[in-house]
């Protein structure tokens, strides 16, 4: 059995879509195991750029099976729009290429409404959600009042559950947030229609994935967001509502841990994050702006500008430990080109001493000041390199130090946005 998981090793937006797309070429099945359409993956092939949100990055290959697992929360309207978008771009999205879990929870209109109203009510203490209804949907899932894809198969049962849910949600919307109530009939009819269009894609994906693994197929598990957005291990409360780390694969795809043999951590050659929360290496100066503009650091889903900073190896080592990373994929090495001196965080100054671990408390993290090691930079030649040996010597030193500090070998180096600008630097 050969299961490989691709993990975001920072705050998300590391380039997982590109790395998944690259690894999908040698895989048979690509499985998305958590998150929702709050995530965004951009993949460039030739002169074409594809923006994905729910559908796994392997969909760009005609001979790969893509799976949306039970740990994903699905907005059926958004999913149908994404299918239409891809087909408009000439990408086939058929039931033979895409399978949707019947156990996945449905994002409902009231989830999106409550997401927005809740954020607004927090004022300056807002979390910075995408407003896609992800958090409220996961809340209902764990509160055991959620609706699942399989419920749509039984219209009367779905109607009964939906009616009970809307009765409660409308009271909250109206009485707590002073918003406008939602119409039951409009929601019910639209979701029955969504089901009629999606029913051929729906299956028990735990069986599909298990049979693929038992049949010695190569299965690639794709996460959304990143380690520092994990609900338990991220910068809480500025986190997502699921588990992007490798442990989330077992729950979100319905496979045992013995079926996963490799964990590839994806990280940028610097650090970015979207939204609020402590960020020890953040650059709020011209250098931060240079990295943002050169790396085009704007969210695929929201378009929000990303906060940018130097590479934080404390975070990366933390991610390696949490997910048992077997290798690293370094992306956007080209973005740091033409910078004379490049810094890397190797520890935090905290309460009068230097620590090399990631604090749980956001109050403690906010007090941490980065301890840097400085490296000589490199020129634009890196984006034309087709092998590790062709990289600028200073870039190679930079990568080797990352390996030394984290204890994890670098297997892939991305030197540009295109699929072709990807270097295999070691065993994946």
Automatic annotation (TrEMBL):
Its EC number is 6.3.4.4. It comes from Fonticella tunisiensis. Homodimer. Its cofactor is Mg(2+). Substrate binds at residues 300-306. Mg(2+) binds at residues 13, 40. NCBIfam families: PRK01117.1 (NF002223), purA (TIGR00184). SMART domains: Adenylsucc_synt (SM00788). Plays an important role in the de novo pathway of purine nucleotide biosynthesis. Catalyzes the first committed step in the biosynthesis of AMP from IMP. Gene3D superfamilies: Adenylosuccinate Synthetase, subunit A, domain 1, Adenylosuccinate Synthetase, subunit A, domain 2, Adenylosuccinate Synthetase, subunit A, domain 3. This is Adenylosuccinate synthetase. One of its GO terms (molecular function) is GTP binding. InterPro entries: Adenylosuccin_syn_GTP-bd (IPR018220), Adenylosuccin_syn_Lys_AS (IPR033128), Adenylosuccinate_synth_dom1 (IPR042109), Adenylosuccinate_synth_dom2 (IPR042110), Adenylosuccinate_synth_dom3 (IPR042111), Adenylosuccinate_synthetase (IPR001114), P-loop_NTPase (IPR027417). Pfam families: Adenylsucc_synt (PF00709). One of its GO terms (biological process) is 'de novo' AMP biosynthetic process. Belongs to the adenylosuccinate synthetase family. Binds 1 Mg(2+) ion per subunit. The active site is at residues 13, 41, 141. Its main location: cytoplasm. Keywords: Cytoplasm, GTP-binding, Ligase, Magnesium, Metal-binding, Nucleotide-binding, Purine biosynthesis. Pathway: Purine metabolism; AMP biosynthesis via de novo pathway; AMP from IMP: step 1/2. GTP binds at residues 12-18, 40-42, 306, 332-334, 414-416. It is found in: Cytoplasm. One of its GO terms (cellular component) is cytoplasm.
């Amino acid at each position: 059995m050969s299961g490989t998981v691709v993990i975001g090793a920072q705050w998300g937006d590391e380039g997982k879509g590109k790395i998944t797309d690259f690894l999908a070429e040698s895989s048979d099945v690509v499985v998305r195991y958590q998150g929702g359409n709050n995530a965004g993956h951009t993949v460039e092939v030739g002169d074409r750029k594809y923006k994905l949100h729910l559908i796994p990055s392997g969909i760009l290959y005609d001979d790969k099976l893509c799976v949306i697992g039970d740990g994903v929360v699905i907005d059926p309207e958004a999913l149908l729009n994404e299918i239409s978008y891809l087909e408009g771009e000439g990408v086939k999205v058929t039931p033979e290429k895409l399978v949707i879990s019947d156990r996945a929870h449905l994002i409902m209109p009231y989830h999106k409404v409550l997401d927005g109203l809740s954020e607004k009510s927090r004022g300056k203490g807002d979390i910075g959600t995408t407003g896609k209804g992800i958090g409220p949907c996961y809340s209902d899932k764990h509160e055991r009042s959620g609706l699942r894809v399989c419920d749509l198969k039984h219209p009367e049962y779905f109607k009964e559950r939906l009616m009970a849910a809307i009765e409660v949600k409308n009271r909250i919307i109206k009485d707590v947030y002073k918003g406008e109530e939602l119409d039951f009939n409009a929601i019910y009819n639209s979701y029955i229609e969504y089901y009629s269009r999606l029913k051929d894609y729906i299956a028990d994906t735990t069986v599909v994935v298990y049979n693929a693994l038992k049949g010695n197929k190569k299965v690639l598990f794709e996460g959304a967001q990143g380690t520092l957005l994990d609900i338990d291990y991220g910068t809480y409360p500025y986190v997502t509502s699921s588990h992007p780390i490798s442990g989330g694969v077992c729950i979100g795809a319905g496979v045992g841990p013995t079926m996963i043999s490799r964990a590839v951590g994806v990280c940028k050659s610097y650090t970015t994050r979207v939204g609020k929360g402590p960020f020890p290496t953040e650059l709020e100066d011209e250098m931060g702006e240079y990295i943002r503009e050169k790396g085009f650091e704007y969210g695929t889903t929201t378009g929000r500008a990303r906060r940018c900073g130097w590479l934080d190896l404390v975070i990366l080592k933390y991610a390696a430990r949490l997910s048992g990373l077997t290798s690293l994929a370094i992306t956007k090495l080209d973005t740091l080109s033409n910078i004379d001196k490049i810094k890397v965080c190797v520890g935090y100054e905290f309460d009068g001493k230097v620590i090399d671990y990631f604090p749980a408390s956001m109050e403690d993290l906010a007090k941490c000041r980065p301890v840097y090691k400085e490296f000589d930079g490199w020129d634009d030649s890196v984006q034309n390199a087709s092998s590790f040996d062709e990289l600028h010597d200073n870039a190679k030193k930079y990568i080797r130090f990352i390996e030394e500090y984290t204890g994890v070998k670098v297997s892939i180096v991305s030197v540009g946005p295109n699929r072709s600008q990807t270097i295999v630097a070691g065993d994946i």
